[in-house]
Amino acid sequence: MLDSQRLASYAVLKTLEGRNLTQTLNRIWQENGNLTAQQKGSIQDLSYGVFRHYGILHAELDLLLRAPLKARAVEALLLVALYQLQYTQAPDHAIVNHAVEGSQKSAKGLVNAVLRNFQRREDELLETLSRNEVALYNHPQWWIDKLKAQYPDRYAEMLDAGNSRPPMTLRINRRKTSLSDYISIGPEGMPLSDSALMLTKPMPVEKLPGFMEGLVSVQDFGAQRAAPLLELKDGMRVLDACAAPGGKSAHMLEIADIDLLSLDSSEARARQITENFSRLGLSGKIKAGDASLPESWWDGKPFDRILADVPCSASGVVRRHPDIKWLRRPEDIAVFARQQRRILEALWQTLASGGKLLYSTCSVFEEENPRLVGDFIERNVEAVRVALNGESAEGRLLPNDKHDGFFYALLQKK
Q1: Do 304 and 395 share a structural domain?
Q2: Which of 87, 127, 331, 412 lies 20 to 30 angstroms, CA to CA, from 37?
Q3: Known catalytic residue: 242?
Q4: Domain span at 286
């Protein structure tokens, strides 16, 4: 437990300093090559758990301390230990002892006192914080207020979903197998469509039957909606404009024989697309380029279909990346919206007459979704929003037990 607690505390510390949690954990794996899969899982569970419950953990720590801590490392250690005491089944005495043992000599007394005090006052603290919205919902207050304003009847369940553990869903590669055939060899799960299987219990990717052979990919069910919404047909010229790591591009190629260009602004991320295609036995053109600057990568031939899965706040997928809640700032939303608008305006010029562009985000904020699309249509008389697969034009997916939060809008050029 000591190593897990110590390394999780380091991951929490770096995130509190503003670093991405996933990148920090990857660095920990690189620097500690002797860690077992079980230890990695424990470290990830602890660090993710802290940020899923950071609102209440931070509020409790404020009440337990006489003055704000100057040492961020001690704060991170205490947050991990408080999370363990409340949300894990590890013995309380072991958690406290390891926290004290793992702290610097000058902080041992403080760490011991704070954690023992919490054990004595837990019920009192929870009662005191029962009216604190940040502690209750474990999201920043600005985030809570925004969802209240935009989803007055749904905000509480959306906040709860953001704190839950995400489902693990597979996408069946229909070029190589079928859902029924994979179910006969694969792990237990619930079919959500003819190519989506939500697992009863998540498992390491490397243990998935047929994964390395390209039979399946891991992809959220909400994300799996993108490719079918494009209404692809064989022979179409298609662009995936913000493609890495390549899940949606691969899904398109699994559905139809298309002339696909997968584009991403990062060369390193573009290489991830290549790796995914190789594993799945697929082929398509891959380029590194800025979607908002077509002159740097476009050959001038219009596309029949475009997927604009634009960079966004990722507010719909925070249960997979719980640090996002605490790293985002209110002003970031306007910054993302400006970038999204630039990309959409640029890509529209590359779309063929009569062609369709699917605008997509993994955000639930209206500024990045219906407001932005509505403004675009008002400025572009040749753009019309059309129904999704013959259904309503509304493409809002709120996070629930089967999928993350997404937004889709299908636009056709008249």
Answers
A1: yes
A2: 87
A3: no
A4: 221-413
